[in-house]
Structure formats: C-alpha cells, structure tokens
Design a protein that fits this description.
Distance between the termini: 51 Å
Number of strands: 40
CATH topology of one domain: Rossmann fold
Radius of gyration: 25 Å
Strand order of the largest sheet: 33-34-36-35-37-38-39-40
CATH class of one domain: Alpha Beta
CATH architecture of one domain: 3-Layer(aba) Sandwich
Largest sheet: 8 strands, mixed
Number of helices: 11
CATH superfamily of one domain: Alpha/Beta hydrolase fold, catalytic domain
Helix content: 10-25%
C-alpha cells in the first residue's frame, strides 16, 4: 500500500484547536459535586519527536506492577464503585441482564469425519461447551467443557481445530482473557487429553496432516531465549507429532530476515499441499507460499509482493483458487495455475461487482460467496467456472457467520443474525436448494415491538455514511430519547448487524440504539478501509461526528441525551470524538481504548497495528498526523468534558491498560466542571475474548448504571 500525502498544516491546526474553550456544565440529573479524584503524581518526562518536545507526566502509570500504580488503580476503582452504588439501580439492572441472557444458544454445526460439532451455552454458563453428535438430530455428547477448568470461568477455549476424521481436537486455552494460549490435544471419543502441552502460542493457526499423525502450527520463541521486545517477534512454523513433547517439534519455516512476519498454515483438502499465509501485523495484504505436504522441500513463493489480500479457497490439482482484492477493491475470485504462476496467466473466475465479497467457501464443487450490500449480507452460489447459479434466500437483512462446508460434501452450515433476530444456525443442501433451521433460540422478549431501519448521513467531505437505528415502534421524533451511538471504524473490520441481549435492555428502557459504519472498515471494500487509516484516520472521526449530528438534527435525541460507545480501536474513536467535539455528547463509554498514539507500538502486540496507524518515531509525517488526534495529547485544560466511563482490564495483553490509566489521569487533571471521569479496571480479564458470561454481565450492568444515571434514565419501563 502506497502511503498518500500527509494532511496539510491548515488541517492539522484545525484539528489541534477543535473543542478548546468550550466549558460544558454538568449534564447529570443527579445533584453532585466534582468527584475527589485520587492524586496522581506528575513527573518531568519529555520525549522529542522530530524536533517536537512532548511531555508524558504520567509515564509511571505504565508500570502496572508498581505499588504506586496499583494503589492508584485501587482508589480509582473505589471511586467508580461508590459512584455506581449511589443510585441503587445496579442490582436491578444486573438482574434484568441476567434474565435476558439466560436462554440456550448454539453455534452453527461443523461437519468433520461424518459427525457434527457445535458450541452451546445453556444460558448463564460462563463459557460455551463443545458438543458432537452423529446426526443432526442425534444425541449430543460433550467434547470440551471449559467451565470445569476454573472456578470463576476465566479459562476459555480460544482456538480449536479438528483433524480430518474428527477423532482428535487440538484446542488452545487462555487464562483470564490473555491472548497467550496453551495448546492441548483431546481424543474426541474418549474425552481425554494427550500428555503434551504446547506453549508460547498466540493467535495460533493449527493445520492437521490428513493421516492424523500431527499438525502444523505457529508459535513464538521461548521468552527466555529472546529479549523482551522480541517476545512477539520471530513467529515460526512447527510440525508437532502426536505423542511427542514440544521440545521434539520440527521447525518447518522461519524468517529471521523479517522478524515481524506472522505465519498461518493451511493443509489443502486433497492432502497434496501445505499452504502458508504470511502477514505483517494487521495489514490485510498478505503473502502466500506453498509446498508439497509430503517431504521437506522449500516453499514456493507463489504470491510474495504483499500487494493485496489473498484468501485461499481450494484447489483442483495445481490450480489454486483465491478471493483477492488485487485490482478489485471490492473483491474477485481468481484461479492461478501453479505451473504458470505469473500474473499474466491468472484467470478471473468471478469478477468484481457492486457488492463486496466478504468471504467465500468451496462447497460441493461450487463457490459460495458471502457478499455485502450496504452493510448486510447476501449469499450467492456459482459454478467453479464462474457461472452464476442462484441466491440463497435469507430470513432478512442481517449477517452471515461461521459458514462451513467441504469441497466434496453437499451440506453447508452457517449462522444468521440481525439486531432483532437472535443468532440462528442454518443448514443448506446445495443439490436440492433446501434451507433448514438447525437451532433457533427462544427469547423471552417482545421483539416484534421494535424495529430497525438503515439511514445514511453525510460526512464532512461529502461521503455517504450508513447507520442502523433500532428502537420501539411508534417512536415520536421529538429529540427526547436517550440514544446510544456505537462505532469502530478500523482494521478493515466490517461492523455488521448483530443480536445482543444487552441491547434489548437498553431498548426496553426507552433508549434508541444506533450503529454507525465509518470508513476504516471493510463495509465497502479496501478503498473504504484505506480512506480511514494512516493519514486518513481523521475521516473516521468526522464520519462518527456526522452520525451524531444527524441524530440530533433529525430529532431522535439531543446532546444531553446522546451517549457514544466504542472499544479498542472504537475506544480511540470515542475518545478522539469527545475531545474534538465535547459539547456534542451527554456521556461517553470508552472501553479498552488505544489512547497514547505515540507509544502504543512499544507494548505487547502494539507493533502489529503500525500498518494501520503508523509509527511516530519512524516518520515525521506519521508523527504529525498521530500527534494531531492522539487522545492522550489532545486533552485541553479548562474544558468541561462530558461524563465518561473508561474501562480496562488488568490482564489485557492486547491493548495494555496503561492507555486507560494515563487517559483518566490526564482528564481528571485538566477537565473542569462536575461531570464524572471514572476509571474501571477489571481483574482477571483481558481484552474481551473468552470473557466469562458472569463478568460480561457485571461489566454491562456497570455501564448501564453509569449511563442511566448521567442521562436521567429510569431503567426498565
């Protein structure tokens, strides 16, 4: 990806001054005075970036293990606890969330070795349980139940791969929300694990050999063998043979010349080839290598330019099929003859069209495409030669997930969901064109009393931005409704319609729920992503601000009743938007946020995000645009910011909690007025993956307690 020119100095100046001089009075309806924030020591730490000095007075909060930091965090948690306890509403809100969550729900099945595997949660189980059944209507037997692995539900299965005949399962366990995994192997028929445990795995992909003797997997070095800064570098591909210790694993591939590459293996369904993906951080552009599965010959560098996204779909002998955005920002299907791999010999099987090809699968010797049209999915079937067959009718406008099938099997399975449609598992038989409901949950909630519609607003530069609005039917547009606006906008991730019981609690309390689809995601292809990354990141904030303004202009809400919420990159989003337009919102929920844009790359997996954000140390241009919007560096003294709840977790090793801590300390120091600035740091929790249901309910109850208070809501109606 070629970097485009940096913003002009005029735009940088505008961004730097947005929001200054605006003293906002308290928007809370409960009489209060300015909270007595825990004292945070300031130190004289100054870094110089390309001739610009930047102070970092709360650098000491980066040391999570120091007594000073832990004492300060404990006092912040105590302050937040006292604030949330003052109304007495939290237990009632928590009880309602538990009630709404307490229903059986299942994933779509995956067929392996003639049997069907699926995940199920009975309702309030902390972790879903993996089951197997011989037929879709047969008795379900437990394969893995993570709930028995810890008393508090904080051990989660974070990756799982069945061998080709479905008799063995390699699965990764994480503890307390960490991205770190330990891989175990379970005999499916016996329900017992083999002796070996594989360590130093993170974001690990597992690819079984067809004979079931072992698998290929990626892992990082033993931490004692490398420096601390390289613990997330030097990802390597290994072969593990069942029944042997990890120390006997065979190194298959490494790239010491490019230590930041990540590796992911795939074994082709015909058992002929080992395919290897190579990624740099979160950059969607990748390389693809391959070699015969048998033997130890070198990999052939089939696609080595990292010029586009290439998703391997399957092969017919030496002909490899890929979904790619090469010369097609919205995606196309191509075939590459590995005997004639030059781009001049590539053939386009399915060309780019108006809709974005989100992902695809090879099922029953046909190509099944999941396509996006204005942020909802359509399901299309094609012959291998690209001839269109049919669209598969779906229950409505929504999202397809977990699509699975085999090249030589007529059955495929997927899930479907929308804002008012609980995730339902479906089966489809390609020869008969028959769609079958496998499992549809029953919800004790009157979904028919609510509605969703899609609208479009116009961003600052004229770009059309879609958003979904869900609310009770018959809503009067008088500007009085508490409204929760959610967004993400980054990393080529599409934010699709989806069902959430916590959203139901918001709706029945009289709230309006809005999901905006800003640039930076993949909703309209790679060009949409590029328009919201690197030097174009301000576009994302402009899009979100435009969505907020549209809701106010169209009388859904007013600033004092409008809350914004986002997590991770979405936490960066809401923090930046709050600082740029503090008068526009009545409340902010900023979850596990990326805040210090000058130093984010120095911690754990932060370097993975450099292709998305840039690196302030490496480039003067990149420093310029990062510094212009970095939330930590754009808090203005003397400004009254809206009430904000900042959340993090003590074992989050993806977006480390130092971001949230330094942001809270800076806001508490500089903001004026009585609006609360609260920090909530969860214990034994990570970035969100694998979070126990009980902890998720507690966190959501705290968020709604905060929002109901500062927005003047009464809770359930």
């Amino acid at each position: 990806m070629n970097k485009r020119s940096v913003w002009t100095s005029a735009i940088l100046t505008l961004i730097a001054t947005l929001g200054t001089g605006c003293h906002r009075p308290s928007t809370t309806t409960t009489a209060q005075r300015r909270p007595a924030y825990p004292q945070a020591r300031k130190e004289a730490v100054v870094d110089t970036y390309h001739g610009t000095e930047v102070a970092d007075p709360y650098r000491w909060l980066e040391d999570a293990d120091s007594d000073e930091t832990q004492t300060w965090v404990a006092r912040q948690n105590d302050l937040t606890e006292r604030f949330l306890a003052r109304t007495g509403a939290r237990e009632r809100i928590k009880a309602r969330l538990k009630s709404l969550t307490n229903y059986p729900r299942c994933s779509s099945p995956s067929k392996q070795g003639g049997r069907y595997f699926f995940w199920k949660n009975d309702g309030l189980q902390n972790q879903s349980v993996l089951y197997v059944q011989d037929t879709l209507d047969g008795e379900a037997r437990v394969v893995v139940n993570p709930n028995v692995l810890s008393a508090d539900g904080t051990v989660a299965v974070t990756t799982a791969a069945l061998n080709w005949d479905g008799t063995k399962l390699a699965y990764g366990l994480s503890h307390s929300g960490s991205d770190e995994q330990e891989v175990r192997i379970r005999e499916v028929n016996w329900g017992m694990d083999l002796d070996e445990v594989l360590q130093w795995c993170r974001f690990t992909t597992i690819a079984w050999h067809h004979d079931g003797s072992g698998f290929f997997y990626s892992r990082f070095p033993d931490p004692i063998t490398v420096s601390e800064e390289d613990r997330m570098n030097y990802n390597r591909l290994y072969w593990h043979r069942l029944g042997t210790p990890q120390s006997a694993d065979v190194l298959i591939y490494e790239r010491p010349d490019n230590k930041e590459l990540s590796l992911a293996p795939v074994v082709t369904e015909d058992g002929r080839y080992l395919v290897l993906y190579l990624h740099h951080g979160t950059d969607p552009r990748n390389r693809v290598y391959y070699r015969p599965l048998e033997g130890d010959g070198p990999f052939v560098r089939l696609l080595d330019e990292a010029d586009a996204r290439y998703d391997f779909l399957g092969n017919q002998g030496p002909i490899f099929y890929f979904l790619t955005n090469s010369d097609a920002p919205k995606g196309r299907i191509i075939a590459i003859d590995t005997d004639r791999p030059a781009q001049a010999h590539w053939s386009t099987v399915i060309p780019e069209s108006d809709g974005v090809i989100d992902y695809a699968a090879w099922v029953d010797n046909q190509l099944v495409l999941v396509c996006m049209h204005d942020v909802h999915h359509r399901l299309k079937v094609f012959h291998l030669d690209g001839q269109y067959i049919r669209d598969i009718d779906l229950p409505g406008l929504g999202t397809i997930g977990s699509l699975s099938g085999r090249q030589d099997d007529p059955e495929m399975f997927f899930s479907f969901t929308s804002f008012l449609y609980p995730s339902t598992s479906l089966g489809y038989d390609l020869p008969s064109n028959e769609l079958r409901v496998i499992h549809q949950p029953e919800i004790d909630f009157d979904l028919a009393a609510y509605e969703t519609r899609q609208v479009f607003c116009t961003s600052r530069d004229g770009t059309r931005i879609p958003m979904f609005i869900t609310h009770r039917k018959g809503l009067t547009l008088d500007g009085s409704h508490p409204t929760l606006l959610y967004g993400y906008g980054g990393f080529n991730i599409n934010i699709m319609p989806g069902f959430s019981t916590s959203t139901l609690a918001w709706l029945e309390a009289g709230g309006v729920y809005v999901q905006a689809n800003m640039r930076g995601g993949s909703e309209y292809g790679e060009s949409w992503h590029q328009a919201g990354m690197l030097e174009n990141k301000q576009n994302v904030f402009d899009d979100f601000i435009a969505a907020a303004e549209w809701l106010i202009e169209n009388n859904y809400t007013q600033p004092a009743k409008l809350a914004i919420r986002g997590g991770s990159n979405g936490g960066l989003l809401v923090a930046a938007c709050m600082l740029q337009r503090p008068h526009l919102y009545g409340a902010v929920v900023c979850q596990v946020p990326v805040i210090d844009m000058l130093r984010y790359h120095k911690f754990t997996v932060g370097r993975y995000w450099v292709p998305e954000y840039g690196n302030a140390e490496a480039s003067k241009q990149e420093f310029g645009y990062l510094y212009a919007y970095s939330p930590l560096h754009n808090v203005k003294a003397g400004v009254g910011y809206p009430p904000i709840l900042i959340t993090s977790a003590d074992t989050d090793d993806r977006v480390v909690p130092l971001h949230a801590k330094k942001f809270a300390a800076t806001l508490q120091e500089k903001a004026v007025g009585d609006n609360p600035i609260l920090l909530r740091v969860e214990t034994k929790a990570g970035h969100g993956g694998g979070k126990p249901v009980s902890k998720a309910i507690e966190e959501q109850a705290d968020i709604y307690t905060f929002l109901f208070d500062v927005l003047g809501m009464q809770g359930r109606r």
